[in-house]
Design goal:
single chain, 2 helices
């Protein structure tokens, strides 16, 4: 099995264990904003946002590499 798929599955399993083990409500306070969520919602939201940001950064760096190769030829 390729390493990336293995690491992805391992990450999903760890995320699932974290979600199942943390059902309590937590208070999130940022500057003047305050709300409460279940901890599993915060964990899933953080993981999803991290995945989206990683995808955006990865695609942006690949785009910059292609531009560099096109204009500088190396």
């Amino acid at each position: 099995m390729p390493v990336r798929i293995s690491l992805f599955l391992f990450g999903i399993i760890v995320l699932l264990l974290l979600v199942l083990g943390n059902p309590e409500r937590v208070v999130i306070q940022f500057l003047f904003w305050r709300t409460s969520y279940e901890l599993y919602q915060v964990i899933i939201g953080s993981a999803a946002l991290g995945a989206v940001l990683a995808l955006l950064f990865h695609s942006h760096f690949n785009y910059l590499k292609r531009l560099r190769k096109r204009f500088f030829g190396s």
